[in-house]
Design a protein that fits this description.
Strand content: 15-25%
Distance between the termini: 31 Å
Radius of gyration: 17 Å
CATH class: Alpha Beta
Number of strands: 10
Structural class: alpha/beta
CATH superfamily: Ureohydrolase domain
CATH architecture: 3-Layer(aba) Sandwich
Bound molecules: manganese (II) ion
Order of helices and strands: EHEEEHEHEHEHEEHEH
Strand order of the largest sheet: 4-1-5-10-9-6-7-8
Number of domains: 1
Helix content: 25-40%
CATH topology: Arginase, Chain A
Shape: globular
């Protein structure tokens, strides 16, 4: 049941350039459970933001997008098999190369089936990973498709670029530094040298500094500013960005301000309006 679609989602599916799909799924988490409720809360708090982008000088009223709501599957206890089930479902939704797809998580593991679904129709897709973490564990708590293995799994099959990583586990370092294009926050401009073909952009909200994004499951200091994100959107050739996600927002610890949920709404608005 679609109670609160993302604000200004008035177009029909047929007329829309962007389709929003949410995946309210959370696999194994280390500490703070709650990302599985993010899609509904983000939609609700989208009523708190304005529709105009000061950066891209357009409004949500100027573009056409449609919010399809949550995917309809039963999440099962086995995390890896649930990810495969999500992919199976997404293959029935992500079917039209005339559209671009926006996904709302959920924890970061949902990026794996979302990326696969995009790659299934667009073929050559470069993966851009905005995250405080390297997410390069081979297996994490017995899960192959874990929130801590996202970049590992995707980079095993596609060119992958990481922006803003600032914390790594010892066991990830070797793989990360030899297989991933690693871009520092102080050198965001170099991103443009690596962008060929279609692009999938994944935004783990812990990419941002905890001062503006406190309600994430695994926060880390010295993160990105909102302006860094805008710079990235300006660098990406928007016509080629065919998949996008926002993950790891944890509304359960966002009370009472809901500032991180509102930030997620702004991130989504700026992405939608950055498109040509
Ligand atoms: Mn992360």
């Amino acid at each position: 049941m679609r109670i609160f679609p993302f604000i200004k989602s008035y177009s029909s599916i047929e007329q829309s350039k962007y389709l929003i799909v949410s995946i309210p799924y959370e696999g194994y988490v280390n500490t703070r459970l709650g990302t599985f409720v993010a899609p509904k809360v983000i939609r609700k708090y989208s009523e708190c933001i304005e529709s105009y982008s000061n950066y891209f000088n357009r409004s949500l009223e100027d573009i056409s997008f449609f919010d399809l709501g949550d995917i309809k599957i039963d999440f099962i206890y086995d995390n890896d098999n649930t990810i495969l089930e999500i992919y199976k479902y997404l293959k029935t939704v992500v079917i039209n190369k005339e559209k671009k797809y926006v996904f709302i998580g959920g924890d970061h593991s949902i990026t794996i089936p979302c990326f696969w679904a995009i790659k299934n129709i667009y073929k050559n897709v470069v993966y851009v990973h905005l995250d405080a973490h390297a997410d390069c564990h081979s297996v994490y708590h017995n899960q192959k498709y874990s929130h801590a293995s996202v970049l590992r799994r995707i980079s095993e099959e596609s060119v992958s670029i990481s922006v803003g990583v600032r914390t790594l586990d010892d066991s990830e370092k070797g793989y990360f530094f030899s297989n991933i294009i690693n871009i520092d926050l102080n050198n965001i401009g170099s991103l443009k040298d690596y962008l060929k073909g279609y692009i999938y952009l994944s935004v783990d909200v812990d990419f941002f500094d905890p001062s503006i994004a406190p309600a994430v499951s695994n926060p880390n200091s010295s993160g990105a500013k909102f302006e860094d994100y805008i710079k990235i959107l300006e660098i990406l050739p928007s016509e080629n960005v065919v998949g996008f996600d926002i993950v790891e927002v944890n509304p359960v610890i966002d009370y009472p301000s809901f500032n991180t949920c509102i930030l997620a709404c702004e991130l989504l608005r700026e992405f939608l309006l950055s498109g040509k």
